[in-house]
Structures are given as structure tokens and as C-alpha cells.
Write a structure and sequence with these properties.
Length: 320
């Protein structure tokens, strides 16, 4: 291979830039040139490529977001869009593609590979951590730490005003962020989609704590909890047992910011490994990290297999 392309797709995640940097520099180190594709699959279809040299990725390792920009692309879901994308790669003599994104981006990559046999490797980057085949996804550690810092601050005001706060963190179908953040901030309860939420019991616990003299409480809820979002939970608690609470939705603040050391290292490691997988005939695959080692899995495993929560962490959240 003499030329590869790299793109970021779907939701952005802190650490994507560190990953682009590693892809570019590992490829250049192996005498392969790199084109960056702007705006994910949209840029592939619209032929928006930029040459990426060693210095083009200087000073980005610490930046959140993605210098290549990202997008969702309805056109890539259609055969005609993918045909244009394949034509553009072919006319630019691109022989391999690195896709940095979530499981949606990998589904697209898989279809694309099946149709055009393009050598392709996926790198898991999403704050939700809900991708099978890697212990952690790029961006997750930063998002958890951002949420933790914010909730520590909310804890101060909750204590000062003797209030109950229901804090919503991201996680539409997975409770990874809520679980770790909940343990980290010492939340009175953690509400996640993977476990049954017993609101009556939660209200009882809060009441009991108040009787024991505790005047403030923090409940951490994943946005996809089966009892509803933070506002719905607060109003159910009021109806059930008269508990008044304040709601804070952390929202997109969790997506931004400078990546943590852990995310920068993970992104660098997976970027490097993805290029090696492309050049050493390890494609198509998703590269991940398990027990600190690099692993390669078939792309479809990333969405057909379900990543389980650590049951010990669930126990900690319920009992501490
Ligand atoms: P993420 O990668 O963060 O999960 P999305 O689910 O939005 O983000 O997926 C990103 C893009 O991947 C979509 O906008 C679409 O262009 C492409 N994609 C997702 N699923 C498919 C599919 N089944 N076929 C073709 N392209 C797809």
C-alpha cells in the first residue's frame, strides 16, 4: 500500500485528534502517504480530501473534537452514495481506509467493504463505551472525568442548600458513564438502563438518609434509564413520596474538552495498530484494547455482541 485515507464519523469524542495524529505518523513512518477526509462519509462522497503531513498533526493531541470534522451521512446509507465514495477513493489511488467512529460508522464501513472490497480498519471512538471488543472506547475516560468534575461541584451546592439533585449523564442505551461517575461521586443512587430501577426503594433510601441527618443527595441517571429522563424521574419521585429535587442535565459538555492522558494513550495506541493492521493484511477489522493489549475483531462483532457492565461495579453502586 502506498496511500491510505483516514476519517472521523458519527458523534465526536475527545481523543479523535490524538488518533488521527497517530494514524498519520505511523503511516508516514512506514512510507505510506495519508489523505484526511473531511466530515466523515460526507467528505468521501463529496471528494473532500486533504493531504496530511507530519506537521499537519502537530499540536492537536490535546484538543477535543476532530480537526477533520465529523458528520452523519444519509447519502452513505444508499448504494449510490457509496458508489461515489468508492469512485473517489479509486481516482485518488487510495488503497486503504481508517474509520474512527462508533458502531454506526462501523456498520457503514462493513457494508462499504463488502461491496467494494476496500481494505478497511475501524477504531472505536465514542464517549458511551458501548462497543464490544474493546475494554474502553476513545473518549469515554474524558467524558467520565468531565461529568465527575461537574457533579462534584453540584454536590457542593446540594450540600449548601440541603437539596436533592437528579443529574442526567449521557448514555441512551448504556449505563457505562453513569455507573462509573455514580461510584466516583458517591451518588446515593445510580439509575441505568441495564438494571431495573426501583424508584420507590430509592425514595425510601433518600428519606432514611434525611432522617439520619443527611440533608443532600445526588442521584445519577443515564439518559436511557427505563423510568425516563432526569425530569421524569424527579417528577415521579415528587408524586410518589413528596421529594423535591433539582434537575441538571449535563448534555454535550461531556463530549468536549481536552482528552485525558488515558484517552490520548489509547487513541495513539489504536491509531498505530490500525495502520499496522491495514499494511500487514489484518483487515477488515476493528482494533481494540483488552487487558492493555491490542486486539483485532471482525467489524460486525462490535455491534452484534453486547458489551456487559462490570458486575462488581454494579454491586458497588448499589451498596456504597
Ligand atoms: P456513530 O458512528 O457515532 O455510532 P452513527 O450511528 O450516526 O454514528 O453512524 C455514522 C454514519 O455511519 C451514519 O450517518 C451513516 O452515514 C453511516 N452508517 C450507519 N449505519 C449504516 C448502514 N447500515 N449502512 C451504511 N452506512 C451506515
Amino acid at each position: 500500500m502506498k496511500k491510505i485515507a483516514v476519517l472521523t464519523s458519527g458523534g465526536d469524542a475527545p481523543g479523535m485528534n490524538a488518533c488521527i495524529r497517530a494514524v498519520v505518523r505511523r503511516a508516514l513512518g512506514r512510507n505510506v502517504s495519508v489523505l484526511g477526509v473531511r466530515k466523515g462519509y460526507e467528505g468521501l462522497i463529496d471528494d473532500i480530501f486533504v493531504e496530511m503531513g507530519w506537521d499537519d498533526v502537530s499540536n492537536i493531541i490535546q484538543r477535543g473534537g476532530t480537526v477533520l470534522h465529523t458528520a452523519r451521512s444519509a447519502r452513505f446509507m444508499e448504494p449510490e452514495g457509496r458508489r461515489k465514495a468508492a469512485d473517489n477513493l479509486c481516482s485518488r489511488s487510495v488503497e486503504g481506509l481508517v474509520v474512527i467512529g462508533g458502531d454506526g460508522s462501523f456498520r457503514g464501513a462493513h457494508v462499504f467493504h463488502r461491496e467494494y472490497l476496500i481494505p478497511l480498519v475501524g477504531i472505536p471512538a465514542t464517549i458511551d463505551n458501548d462497543i464490544w471488543g474493546t475494554d474502553f472506547t476513545i473518549g469515554y475516560d474524558t467524558a467520565v472525568n468531565t461529568a465527575l468534575e461537574a457533579i462534584d461541584k453540584i454536590r457542593d451546592t446540594a450540600a449548601a442548600h440541603d437539596r436533592i439533585f437528579v443529574v442526567e449523564v449521557m448514555g441512551r442505551s448504556a449505563g457505562f458513564i453513569a455507573l462509573e461517575v455514580g461510584i466516583g461521586v458517591g451518588a446515593e443512587a445510580v439509575l441505568i438502563p441495564e438494571t431495573r430501577t426501583d424508584l420507590e426503594k430509592i425514595c425510601e433510601v433518600v428519606h432514611e438518609r434525611m432522617e439520619q441527618g443527611r440533608t443532600s443527595s445526588i442521584l445519577v441517571v443515564a439518559e436511557g434509564d427505563e423510568e425516563g429522563n432526569a425530569f421524569e424521574i424527579a417528577s415521579k419521585m415528587k408524586r410518589m413520596s413528596g421529594l423535591e429535587s433539582r434537575v441538571t442535565v449535563l448534555g454535550h459538555v461531556q463530549r468536549g474538552g481536552s482528552p485525558t492522558t488515558r484517552d490520548r494513550v489509547l487513541a495513539s495506541k489504536l491509531g498505530w495498530a490500525a495502520v499496522d493492521a491495514l499494511l500487514d493484511d489484518g483487515w477488515p477489522c476493528m482494533v481494540g484494547e483488552e487487558n492493555y493489549g491490542v486486539v483485532h475483531h471482525p467489524l460486525p462483532d462490535s455491534w452484534t455482541r453486547k458489551k456487559e457492565l462490570d458486575s462488581l461495579l454494579v454491586q458497588l453502586a448499589e451498596n456504597l
